[in-house]
Automatic annotation (TrEMBL):
Gene3D superfamilies attached to this UniProt entry: MFS general substrate transporter like domains (1.20.1250.20)
PANTHER family associated with the record: MULTIDRUG RESISTANCE PROTEIN MDTG
Name of protein: MFS transporter
Keyword Nucleotide-binding included in the entry's annotation: no
Record-annotated membrane-spanning stretches: 16-38, 50-70, 82-99, 105-127, 139-161, 167-189, 223-246, 252-274, 286-306, 377-397
Major facilitator superfamily (MFS) profile domain span: 12-401
Length: 414
């Protein structure tokens, strides 16, 4: 029987869960409303489309550069500070969005969001050092449940608040919620010292050595590449999904309702799937979980081009959400296994940044597929990409050790 989880650890995970929920809910409030907000700044339809695309891509680009550096700071000085920094940085960026008087200022806020935010990566790193090896999968899976809950609640609440109080008040409320999350993290998270190399052991590896460790492990490089491809596939689906629902309903108003219902079904299934896949990763190999889940997700997406009514999409979207919950956390779990704890922040920051580049590539890919192919073929192509990601993960299974690698660390607990 596994030993009971200490109460301080339970409290820390509740704090991390709330913070990640607040961050994801806040961002999913902002993203769907971007075109409307940019239009309110006086842009025309063509300019709105261009600035929306650039604003969507900006945080991922900035985070790709900043996340490994923040991870190295956390590895040296402690990861609690990085959790607080991520929430406070995101609060600052979102708060400044309320003051934007033009698209350039708003774009600068989005870049600041990527450079100083990174809540998901910061919380995953802290959780991976707090949880014991046999509970790490469940910890990461539960945190992904917070992502699912935030993605479910955020758009519903955001639309109501924006319609009633305006965009400035909406951004202010999100920023205030993130300030609360930062304060709770500062007060409630245990102040753990940074992991140090053991006496007589190798020195703390630099960023290049850490990246080399991931790239030299078959499971590491395969899972990061598969995660990037899986993320790109799901974001490509965003571009083709709403038009497909509109085609099935024949009405924009009815399509708007159905898109909301189907999105809710997807994220509700992810909320349930996160802990389930996490527990599976604790018992086995994360690369296997990724391969199985990406294949299931690919089949569910490919079949979404077949139904003749939106109601028939419900089980497919639920299956997609349940399987998608395994992808990012399995990449994170694998990275934790192939790098020592004293360089885990830099490793997870880099891996999350690379996976999130799929958010930039995916919408462009979806637009290309929508322009070249009929809807059923576009869904089939996106499903095939997810199955290709499954193949990449399966290729890396041969190097995915069933037990965590030795860490050779001095004690990191206070």
């Amino acid at each position: 029987m596994a030993p009971p989880v200490p109460e301080t650890e339970r409290r820390a995970f509740r704090t991390l869960w709330f913070g990640q929920f607040a961050a994801v809910a806040g961002l999913t409030v902002v993203v769907p409303l971007l075109p409307f907000y940019l239009a309110s700044l006086g842009l025309g339809p063509a300019e709105v489309a261009w600035w929306t695309g650039v604003s969507l891509a900006a945080p991922a680009v900035a985070q790709l550069a900043a996340a490994p550096l923040w991870g190295m700071v956390g590895d040296r000085y402690g990861h609690k500070a990085m959790v607080v920094r991520a929430h406070a940085g995101l609060a600052l960026a979102v708060g400044l969005m309320a003051l934007a008087d033009g698209p350039a200022f708003f774009l600068a806020c989005r870049l600041l969001q990527g450079a100083c935010g990174g809540v998901v990566g910061a919380t995953a790193t802290y959780a991976s050092t707090l949880a014991e090896d046999g509970r790490r999968g469940r910890a990461l899976g539960t945190l992904f449940g917070a992502t699912g809950a935030g993605s479910l609640v955020g758009p519903l609440v955001g639309g109501v608040l924006a319609g009633r109080f305006g965009f400035g008040a909406l951004f202010g409320c999100v920023a205030a919620l993130l300030v609360v999350a930062a304060a709770l993290a500062a007060v409630l998270l245990p102040n753990r010292r940074a992991a140090r190399p053991a006496a007589g052991g190798p020195a703390r590896p630099g960023l290049r050595a850490t990246l080399g460790r991931i790239a030299s492990a078959p499971c590491g490089r395969s899972l990061v590449a598969a995660g990037m491809l899986g993320q790109a596939s799901v974001f490509a689906l965003v571009v083709v999904f709403a038009p497909r629902v509109a085609e099935l309903t024949g009405s924009v108003a009815a399509a708007s309702v159905w898109v909301g219902v189907l999105q809710a079904a997807t994220w509700a299934a992810s909320l349930a799937g996160g802990p389930w896949w996490g527990a599976r990763n604790d018992r086995g190999r994360p690369a296997v979980s990724f391969a199985v889940a990406a294949a299931g997700c690919g089949v569910a997406v490919a079949l979404q081009g077949v139904p003749a009514s939106p109601g028939a999409l419900l089980p497919l979207r639920a299956a997609q959400g349940f399987c998608f919950a395994a992808l990012v956390q399995s990449v994170q779990h694998t990275v934790c296994r192939v790098v020592p704890e004293q360089s885990r922040g830099a490793a997870l920051g880099t891996a999350n940044g690379l996976v999130d580049t799929g958010q930039v590539i995916g919408p462009l890919l979806g637009a290309l597929l929508a322009g070249l192919l009929p809807a059923p073929a576009a869904f089939a192509a996106i499903g095939a990409l997810l199955i290709a990601a499954s193949g990449l993960a399966a290729w890396g299974v041969r190097g995915d050790a069933p037990k965590p690698v030795p860490q050779r660390l001095a004690p990191s607990r206070p």
